[in-house]
Write a structure and sequence with these properties.
46% of the residues lie in helices and 17% in strands. By secondary structure, it is of the alpha/beta class.
Length: 368
Protein backbone atom coordinates (compact mmCIF):
# COMPACT_ATOMS: atom_id res chain seq x y z
CA UNK A 1 0.00 0.00 0.00
CA UNK A 2 1.48 3.35 -1.07
CA UNK A 3 0.56 6.35 1.06
CA UNK A 4 0.62 9.90 -0.33
CA UNK A 5 3.44 12.10 0.88
CA UNK A 6 2.50 14.55 3.65
CA UNK A 7 4.31 17.33 5.49
CA UNK A 8 3.55 18.43 9.02
CA UNK A 9 4.88 21.59 10.62
CA UNK A 10 4.57 22.77 14.20
CA UNK A 11 3.04 25.91 15.66
CA UNK A 12 3.45 27.22 19.19
CA UNK A 13 1.65 29.67 21.44
CA UNK A 14 4.51 32.20 21.27
CA UNK A 15 7.77 32.68 19.40
CA UNK A 16 10.59 30.54 20.80
CA UNK A 17 13.04 27.73 20.03
CA UNK A 18 16.27 26.29 21.36
CA UNK A 19 18.08 29.38 20.01
CA UNK A 20 15.36 31.96 20.66
CA UNK A 21 14.36 32.39 24.32
CA UNK A 22 10.63 33.02 24.73
CA UNK A 23 9.53 36.55 25.45
CA UNK A 24 6.36 38.56 25.71
CA UNK A 25 2.99 37.13 26.72
CA UNK A 26 2.70 33.39 27.32
CA UNK A 27 -0.06 33.30 24.68
CA UNK A 28 0.29 35.48 21.59
CA UNK A 29 -2.88 35.03 19.49
CA UNK A 30 -1.57 37.12 16.60
CA UNK A 31 1.59 35.00 16.40
CA UNK A 32 -0.42 31.77 16.54
CA UNK A 33 -2.51 32.96 13.60
CA UNK A 34 0.47 34.14 11.56
CA UNK A 35 2.43 30.95 12.30
CA UNK A 36 -0.45 28.77 11.10
CA UNK A 37 -0.98 30.94 8.03
CA UNK A 38 2.73 30.70 7.16
CA UNK A 39 2.51 26.91 7.12
CA UNK A 40 -0.62 27.05 4.98
CA UNK A 41 1.10 29.42 2.54
CA UNK A 42 4.14 27.12 2.46
CA UNK A 43 2.07 24.09 1.41
CA UNK A 44 2.16 22.02 4.60
CA UNK A 45 -0.63 19.48 5.08
CA UNK A 46 -0.91 19.81 8.87
CA UNK A 47 0.67 21.48 11.87
CA UNK A 48 1.33 19.91 15.25
CA UNK A 49 0.05 21.74 18.30
CA UNK A 50 2.09 20.43 21.22
CA UNK A 51 1.08 19.67 24.81
CA UNK A 52 2.95 20.43 28.01
CA UNK A 53 1.70 20.31 31.57
CA UNK A 54 2.36 24.05 32.04
CA UNK A 55 1.38 25.37 28.59
CA UNK A 56 -1.82 26.89 27.15
CA UNK A 57 -4.44 24.32 26.15
CA UNK A 58 -3.51 22.73 22.82
CA UNK A 59 -7.05 22.21 21.54
CA UNK A 60 -8.03 25.82 22.19
CA UNK A 61 -4.84 27.05 20.50
CA UNK A 62 -5.68 24.82 17.51
CA UNK A 63 -9.19 26.25 17.43
CA UNK A 64 -7.83 29.79 17.16
CA UNK A 65 -5.38 28.73 14.44
CA UNK A 66 -8.14 26.94 12.52
CA UNK A 67 -10.29 30.07 12.58
CA UNK A 68 -7.34 31.97 11.06
CA UNK A 69 -6.77 29.52 8.17
CA UNK A 70 -8.81 27.75 5.50
CA UNK A 71 -7.09 24.54 4.40
CA UNK A 72 -4.36 23.30 6.71
CA UNK A 73 -5.03 20.42 9.10
CA UNK A 74 -4.19 20.19 12.80
CA UNK A 75 -2.43 17.39 14.67
CA UNK A 76 -3.38 18.22 18.25
CA UNK A 77 -1.31 16.55 20.95
CA UNK A 78 -3.40 14.97 23.72
CA UNK A 79 -2.45 13.07 26.86
CA UNK A 80 -4.89 10.42 28.05
CA UNK A 81 -5.85 10.39 31.67
CA UNK A 82 -6.63 13.99 32.55
CA UNK A 83 -10.18 14.13 31.19
CA UNK A 84 -12.66 11.37 30.45
CA UNK A 85 -12.37 9.82 26.98
CA UNK A 86 -16.06 10.47 26.37
CA UNK A 87 -15.50 14.20 26.91
CA UNK A 88 -12.33 14.22 24.79
CA UNK A 89 -14.22 12.47 21.99
CA UNK A 90 -16.89 15.17 22.02
CA UNK A 91 -14.33 17.97 22.17
CA UNK A 92 -12.37 16.66 19.18
CA UNK A 93 -15.55 15.88 17.21
CA UNK A 94 -16.70 19.46 17.85
CA UNK A 95 -13.34 20.79 16.67
CA UNK A 96 -13.58 18.61 13.56
CA UNK A 97 -16.91 20.26 12.73
CA UNK A 98 -15.75 23.79 13.50
CA UNK A 99 -12.62 23.28 11.38
CA UNK A 100 -14.57 21.54 8.58
CA UNK A 101 -12.79 18.21 8.89
CA UNK A 102 -9.25 19.34 9.68
CA UNK A 103 -8.73 17.62 13.06
CA UNK A 104 -6.28 14.88 13.99
CA UNK A 105 -5.31 13.70 17.47
CA UNK A 106 -1.77 12.85 18.53
CA UNK A 107 -1.79 10.52 21.52
CA UNK A 108 1.15 11.25 23.85
CA UNK A 109 1.16 8.85 26.78
CA UNK A 110 4.02 10.67 28.53
CA UNK A 111 7.63 9.79 29.24
CA UNK A 112 8.41 12.10 32.13
CA UNK A 113 6.87 11.11 35.49
CA UNK A 114 7.69 14.50 37.04
CA UNK A 115 5.69 16.32 34.37
CA UNK A 116 2.82 13.84 34.60
CA UNK A 117 2.61 14.48 38.35
CA UNK A 118 2.16 18.20 37.69
CA UNK A 119 -1.29 17.26 36.37
CA UNK A 120 -1.92 14.70 39.11
CA UNK A 121 -0.96 11.53 37.24
CA UNK A 122 0.98 9.07 39.42
CA UNK A 123 0.65 5.91 37.31
CA UNK A 124 3.83 4.14 36.27
CA UNK A 125 4.99 3.73 32.67
CA UNK A 126 3.24 0.41 31.98
CA UNK A 127 0.01 1.58 33.62
CA UNK A 128 -0.02 4.76 31.56
CA UNK A 129 0.16 2.78 28.32
CA UNK A 130 -2.51 0.36 29.52
CA UNK A 131 -4.72 3.35 30.23
CA UNK A 132 -3.95 4.82 26.78
CA UNK A 133 -4.92 1.51 25.19
CA UNK A 134 -8.32 1.58 26.87
CA UNK A 135 -8.70 5.34 26.30
CA UNK A 136 -8.06 5.32 22.55
CA UNK A 137 -10.34 2.34 22.09
CA UNK A 138 -13.09 4.32 23.80
CA UNK A 139 -12.42 7.41 21.67
CA UNK A 140 -12.91 5.38 18.52
CA UNK A 141 -16.04 3.75 19.92
CA UNK A 142 -17.62 7.08 20.91
CA UNK A 143 -16.77 8.55 17.51
CA UNK A 144 -18.37 5.68 15.60
CA UNK A 145 -21.16 4.32 17.81
CA UNK A 146 -24.71 5.05 16.66
CA UNK A 147 -26.24 3.96 19.96
CA UNK A 148 -25.35 4.34 23.66
CA UNK A 149 -23.03 1.68 25.08
CA UNK A 150 -21.84 0.49 28.47
CA UNK A 151 -18.19 -0.03 29.31
CA UNK A 152 -16.43 -1.39 32.37
CA UNK A 153 -12.65 -1.58 32.10
CA UNK A 154 -9.56 -1.18 34.24
CA UNK A 155 -9.51 2.62 34.15
CA UNK A 156 -12.94 3.71 32.91
CA UNK A 157 -16.54 2.77 33.56
CA UNK A 158 -19.49 4.23 31.66
CA UNK A 159 -23.19 3.56 31.36
CA UNK A 160 -24.96 4.59 28.15
CA UNK A 161 -21.94 6.49 26.83
CA UNK A 162 -22.86 8.34 23.67
CA UNK A 163 -22.09 11.47 21.66
CA UNK A 164 -24.63 13.28 19.54
CA UNK A 165 -21.79 14.91 17.62
CA UNK A 166 -19.53 12.62 15.63
CA UNK A 167 -16.56 13.62 13.48
CA UNK A 168 -16.91 14.99 9.98
CA UNK A 169 -14.11 12.62 8.93
CA UNK A 170 -15.08 8.97 8.53
CA UNK A 171 -14.77 6.51 10.06
CA UNK A 172 -13.20 8.78 12.68
CA UNK A 173 -10.60 11.49 13.31
CA UNK A 174 -7.09 10.30 12.31
CA UNK A 175 -5.11 8.94 15.26
CA UNK A 176 -1.38 9.59 15.52
CA UNK A 177 0.45 7.66 18.21
CA UNK A 178 3.97 8.02 19.63
CA UNK A 179 6.19 5.98 21.93
CA UNK A 180 9.13 3.63 21.34
CA UNK A 181 8.96 1.21 24.28
CA UNK A 182 7.74 -2.34 23.70
CA UNK A 183 4.42 -1.63 25.38
CA UNK A 184 3.99 1.56 23.33
CA UNK A 185 4.60 -0.37 20.11
CA UNK A 186 1.94 -2.90 21.10
CA UNK A 187 -0.65 -0.18 21.72
CA UNK A 188 0.31 1.61 18.49
CA UNK A 189 -0.17 -1.61 16.54
CA UNK A 190 -3.76 -1.79 17.78
CA UNK A 191 -4.79 1.84 17.35
CA UNK A 192 -2.48 4.04 15.26
CA UNK A 193 -3.51 5.33 11.87
CA UNK A 194 -0.07 6.99 11.81
CA UNK A 195 2.84 6.01 14.03
CA UNK A 196 5.06 9.02 14.78
CA UNK A 197 8.70 8.80 15.82
CA UNK A 198 11.71 11.10 16.07
CA UNK A 199 14.59 11.41 13.61
CA UNK A 200 16.49 8.17 14.11
CA UNK A 201 19.22 6.75 11.89
CA UNK A 202 18.11 4.78 8.85
CA UNK A 203 18.92 1.50 10.57
CA UNK A 204 16.98 2.52 13.69
CA UNK A 205 14.05 3.68 11.56
CA UNK A 206 14.01 0.40 9.66
CA UNK A 207 13.85 -1.44 12.98
CA UNK A 208 11.08 0.79 14.35
CA UNK A 209 8.92 0.37 11.24
CA UNK A 210 9.34 -3.41 11.36
CA UNK A 211 8.37 -3.51 15.04
CA UNK A 212 5.21 -1.47 14.49
CA UNK A 213 4.15 -3.49 11.46
CA UNK A 214 4.67 -6.73 13.39
CA UNK A 215 2.55 -5.33 16.22
CA UNK A 216 -0.22 -4.40 13.78
CA UNK A 217 -0.17 -7.92 12.37
CA UNK A 218 -0.49 -9.38 15.87
CA UNK A 219 -3.52 -7.14 16.36
CA UNK A 220 -5.13 -8.54 13.22
CA UNK A 221 -4.61 -5.37 11.18
CA UNK A 222 -3.06 -4.94 7.75
CA UNK A 223 0.52 -3.81 8.54
CA UNK A 224 0.66 -1.86 5.29
CA UNK A 225 -2.28 0.28 6.35
CA UNK A 226 -0.30 2.13 9.04
CA UNK A 227 1.44 5.33 8.00
CA UNK A 228 4.78 6.37 9.48
CA UNK A 229 5.72 9.93 10.41
CA UNK A 230 9.36 10.92 11.01
CA UNK A 231 10.19 14.13 12.93
CA UNK A 232 13.41 15.95 12.07
CA UNK A 233 14.88 19.47 12.09
CA UNK A 234 16.18 20.53 8.64
CA UNK A 235 19.07 23.03 8.64
CA UNK A 236 19.30 24.45 5.13
CA UNK A 237 21.54 26.80 3.16
CA UNK A 238 22.43 27.35 -0.50
CA UNK A 239 25.62 25.28 -0.17
CA UNK A 240 26.54 22.33 2.03
CA UNK A 241 29.40 24.31 3.57
CA UNK A 242 27.06 27.17 4.46
CA UNK A 243 24.54 24.73 5.96
CA UNK A 244 27.14 23.21 8.26
CA UNK A 245 28.33 26.69 9.21
CA UNK A 246 24.75 27.53 10.14
CA UNK A 247 24.52 24.31 12.17
CA UNK A 248 27.68 25.33 14.02
CA UNK A 249 26.16 28.72 14.85
CA UNK A 250 23.03 27.01 16.15
CA UNK A 251 25.11 24.81 18.44
CA UNK A 252 27.12 27.83 19.64
CA UNK A 253 23.92 29.70 20.42
CA UNK A 254 22.54 26.74 22.39
CA UNK A 255 25.84 26.59 24.29
CA UNK A 256 25.57 30.30 25.03
CA UNK A 257 22.00 30.06 26.30
CA UNK A 258 22.47 26.89 28.32
CA UNK A 259 25.78 27.84 29.88
CA UNK A 260 26.90 25.27 32.44
CA UNK A 261 24.00 23.03 31.47
CA UNK A 262 25.41 22.49 27.98
CA UNK A 263 26.13 18.81 27.43
CA UNK A 264 24.14 17.95 30.55
CA UNK A 265 20.69 17.72 29.08
CA UNK A 266 17.84 16.05 30.90
CA UNK A 267 16.32 13.25 28.83
CA UNK A 268 12.84 12.13 29.73
CA UNK A 269 13.55 9.40 32.30
CA UNK A 270 11.26 6.78 30.81
CA UNK A 271 11.31 7.82 27.14
CA UNK A 272 12.75 5.09 24.96
CA UNK A 273 12.52 7.55 22.05
CA UNK A 274 14.94 9.87 23.86
CA UNK A 275 17.24 6.93 24.61
CA UNK A 276 17.30 5.96 20.93
CA UNK A 277 18.31 9.50 19.87
CA UNK A 278 21.06 9.55 22.51
CA UNK A 279 22.21 6.13 21.28
CA UNK A 280 22.50 7.55 17.78
CA UNK A 281 24.37 10.59 19.10
CA UNK A 282 26.82 8.44 21.07
CA UNK A 283 28.03 6.88 17.82
CA UNK A 284 29.00 10.23 16.32
CA UNK A 285 27.89 13.81 15.60
CA UNK A 286 26.84 12.91 12.04
CA UNK A 287 25.13 9.63 11.15
CA UNK A 288 24.21 8.27 7.73
CA UNK A 289 24.73 11.02 5.15
CA UNK A 290 23.80 14.09 7.17
CA UNK A 291 21.79 13.24 10.30
CA UNK A 292 23.20 15.73 12.83
CA UNK A 293 22.95 14.54 16.44
CA UNK A 294 24.82 17.19 18.44
CA UNK A 295 21.76 19.23 19.44
CA UNK A 296 19.99 16.08 20.63
CA UNK A 297 23.03 15.18 22.73
CA UNK A 298 23.30 18.70 24.14
CA UNK A 299 19.71 19.04 25.30
CA UNK A 300 19.07 15.45 26.40
CA UNK A 301 16.98 14.45 23.37
CA UNK A 302 13.75 15.13 25.23
CA UNK A 303 12.01 16.13 22.01
CA UNK A 304 12.46 16.29 18.23
CA UNK A 305 16.12 17.40 18.17
CA UNK A 306 18.04 15.51 15.46
CA UNK A 307 18.62 17.49 12.27
CA UNK A 308 19.36 16.98 8.58
CA UNK A 309 21.97 19.48 7.36
CA UNK A 310 22.63 20.49 3.76
CA UNK A 311 21.15 22.13 0.70
CA UNK A 312 17.41 21.63 0.10
CA UNK A 313 18.22 19.02 -2.52
CA UNK A 314 20.61 17.13 -0.23
CA UNK A 315 18.15 17.09 2.67
CA UNK A 316 15.37 16.05 0.29
CA UNK A 317 17.55 13.13 -0.81
CA UNK A 318 17.93 12.05 2.83
CA UNK A 319 14.19 12.34 3.41
CA UNK A 320 13.66 10.18 0.33
CA UNK A 321 15.92 7.53 1.93
CA UNK A 322 13.43 7.37 4.83
CA UNK A 323 10.53 7.30 2.37
CA UNK A 324 12.10 4.23 0.77
CA UNK A 325 11.79 2.51 4.17
CA UNK A 326 8.08 3.29 4.42
CA UNK A 327 7.91 6.80 5.90
CA UNK A 328 5.24 8.86 4.12
CA UNK A 329 4.87 11.78 6.53
CA UNK A 330 7.59 14.19 7.61
CA UNK A 331 7.17 16.44 10.63
CA UNK A 332 9.71 19.22 10.11
CA UNK A 333 10.40 22.40 12.03
CA UNK A 334 13.32 24.77 12.12
CA UNK A 335 15.41 26.48 14.74
CA UNK A 336 14.13 29.78 13.29
CA UNK A 337 10.55 28.48 13.34
CA UNK A 338 8.49 31.00 11.34
CA UNK A 339 11.19 31.91 8.83
CA UNK A 340 12.19 28.29 8.29
CA UNK A 341 8.59 27.22 7.66
CA UNK A 342 8.34 29.70 4.80
CA UNK A 343 11.74 28.67 3.45
CA UNK A 344 10.79 24.98 3.56
CA UNK A 345 7.76 25.80 1.44
CA UNK A 346 9.88 27.52 -1.18
CA UNK A 347 12.67 24.95 -1.32
CA UNK A 348 12.51 21.74 0.72
CA UNK A 349 8.91 20.64 0.19
CA UNK A 350 9.06 20.74 -3.63
CA UNK A 351 12.55 19.18 -3.64
CA UNK A 352 11.36 16.34 -1.40
CA UNK A 353 8.27 15.72 -3.52
CA UNK A 354 10.54 15.37 -6.56
CA UNK A 355 12.98 13.09 -4.74
CA UNK A 356 10.24 10.82 -3.40
CA UNK A 357 8.46 10.73 -6.77
CA UNK A 358 11.71 9.50 -8.31
CA UNK A 359 11.54 6.46 -6.03
CA UNK A 360 8.33 5.20 -7.63
CA UNK A 361 9.84 3.51 -10.71
CA UNK A 362 12.38 1.72 -8.52
CA UNK A 363 9.65 0.49 -6.20
CA UNK A 364 7.61 -0.79 -9.13
CA UNK A 365 10.67 -2.59 -10.51
CA UNK A 366 11.29 -4.25 -7.13
CA UNK A 367 7.76 -5.69 -7.14
CA UNK A 368 7.67 -6.61 -10.83
Amino acid sequence: MTHPLQFIGMISHRASSEIHPPGGPILDPAYVARFAQAHEEAGFDRVLVAWHSTSPDALLVAGHAAASTRRIGFMVAHRPGFIAPTLAARQFATFDHLSQGRAAIHIITGGNPAEQKQDGDFLDHAQRYARSDEYVGLLRRVWTSEAPFDHEGTYYRFERAFSEIRPVQKPHIPIFFGGSSDVAIEVAGRHADTYAFWGETLDQARDTIARVRASAARAGRDPAAIRFSLSVRPVLAETEEAAWARASRILDRIRELRGDRFGKGSPKPESIGSARLLEAAAAGPVRDKRLWTEVAAAVGAGANTTALVGTPEQVAESLADYAALGVSTFLIRGFDPLEDALDYGRTLLPATRRAVAALTPARELEHA
